[in-house]
Amino acid sequence: MALQLDHIKARSGTFDLSATLSVEVGQRVAIIGASGSGKSTLLDVIAGFLTPVSGSVLWAGQNITAKAPGARPIGILFQDTNLFPHLTIRQNLALALNPGSGRLRAGDTEQINASLARVGLEGFAERRLSEMSGGQQSRASLARVLLQGRPVLLLDEPFAALGPALKVEMLDLVTEVADAEGLTVLLVSHDPQDARRFASQTIVVEAGQVSPPQDTMTLLDNPPPGLRAYLGSG
Amino acid sequence: MASRAFSIVAALTVAGLAIGPVTAVILRAEAFSGFRPADWQALWFTLLQATLSAGLSVMFAIPLARALARRQFIGRGLLVALLGAPFILPVIVAVLGLLAVFGQSGLINRVLASFGVPEVQIYGLHGVLLAHVFFNLPLATRLILQGWLAIPTEQFRLAATLGMGRGAMWRAIELPMLRRIVPGAFAVIFVICLSSFAVALTLGGGPRATTLELAIYQSMRFDFDLARAAVLGLVQLALALTAGLIALQVTSLPVAAKGLDRQVPRWDRTDRRAICTDIVWIGLAALFLLMPLLMVTLNGLAGITNLGASVWQAAGHSVLVALGSTALCLLWALPLTTRWGEWLGLAGIALSPLVLGIGLFLIVRPFANPFELALYVTATVNAFVSLPFVLRILRPEAEAIRADYARLRDALGLSGWVWLRWVFLPRLKRPLGFAAGLTAALSMGDLGVIALFADPDRATLPLKVYQLMGAYRMDQAAGGALLLLILSLGLFWMFDRGGRVGSAT
Which of A164, A223, B33, B341 could connect to A227 by a Cys-Cys bridge, CB 3.0–4.6 Å? Predict the structure, then answer.
């Protein structure tokens, strides 16, 4: 059981990306690299926003390359816009549960309340984003993606706008939840400290080349030349 | 992809409505009747009045816009907002107002008469120009005001530190801006006036003051000469297309200009002569724009309490036509809020409503009595004519919604219906309300296609008011005009308000 990228070649504008790798189920993996190195392109291929020119994306041995983003076993937290600002948190979560009909079914309310409790937001169901702090917004987004019940979680620097302490808090929360649910998590970050804290394994993206996951500590303690240049001497 | 299917259906019906009637007219025109002297006269007058109307509107708009740009006074916001009003003001209401001020027994003539000065005649070229300037001076002013407000503050600051005089400032800063803005404003107004019908119908007429559109109407109404109407319609179409394409090169459709409540900070505002000039211009413009409306209201108050049953019936028709064409226009517009959709919608500007009406008349005739369908045809044509404006209003916001939320939509796997119901429409509510209000008011006040069919049992309120005017029942006409004004502004206000209340932020 794994998330696999098999000889992926993808093109975004004039930018080319190639990747072959495998992430075991239940792993927490960081994806690091300079901006413009291809992190977002890689994430778009996995999430289904970009169809690769060749190669395939597999989950548990099944080819999901042709599936729409919403039909993949993947939940994603974007850098911004993870919830609709004009809807209450309850309405947002109801849409995540029933993306086809948009209606609440019996039992949905309990599920929604449980997921809010899970991220420490009891009693926030009737609020809108504008009535919440940045940290609370992040928690609500996490509740949304948990409710979707997808086995793979992609995090595209969703906590980048938070202060350092809040970011650590959120990463710890994700770790806790992911462990409890057995989720496979990929975290895009440009901060090596996030990788150290959060991920046992790390994928380095450099000029469109994606390296397979390696042990985070070993990698960061003895970085190869390209990564060393990105991290800076120190 | 259900949404794609909707887009295709909307595009096909709009394209069909653009092409079908025109084709019907062309086929009908095969018996080319040739261009008679009267037709040349109509073509000449159309070009003449459009040129003069655009020229005069822009000429007066320049000092007025400058005054509004550099002065701050109580009521400035209201006056600027009022400059947007003529867009939704029914032509027939404005005409009655202008007659009350400039007409034979209007205010001006009464004042002149007391000094023994011979009276001023409003009908003919004068009247047409007066009405066109009344409608388009505000538009030109808004466009040019926008240009003035877009001049970076730094330029005026620099001018102040250099100690530039008024002449130098005019040459260095203001003239270059006007060179950019004025051709576009002129072109837009020229195009609008080319297809002037209701104004020409009420204030023009006669061989010396007949536009092509009016000539089309007359050949249908009085001679039932379809071949001649078809030829005139084709000339009108060619004219509108050419002018429209040229206008598009120099400008874009002005609908909702934002940020006009600012004032240009400059350092020459204490110049006494400038202050006097500005006061005079603002005062004259306010009088010119407000007096007719005031007169319509005053004259109408007496008549509105005892309107006949037929007036109320016509009002009912008008409201239904307005609501119907608003619904149809939005149904068309929502799937067409894209770049190519907006191009398609521009057909609504190029095609003359009368040509469309005649084409539909010809298409329907083999199957049904066109006169019975007059109200449906009117609602359809009105929706078509409003489409470019509605798309202009909706498209930027619609594209922003798609840009902001398409990824979240896809990540959640929202169905087309859920996206529309929970995200797209709620977030589009505000411009949607504004667009609906505009369409409803335009349709409510329209005096175009319906005049072609002019069936007493199926009159709309503007047509009814026109008929009352023609029958010299001025009290009833004034009462009807006030009712029309209330209904038009009321519909606009209702829809626009509806879009604002609890709208997504």
Answer: A223
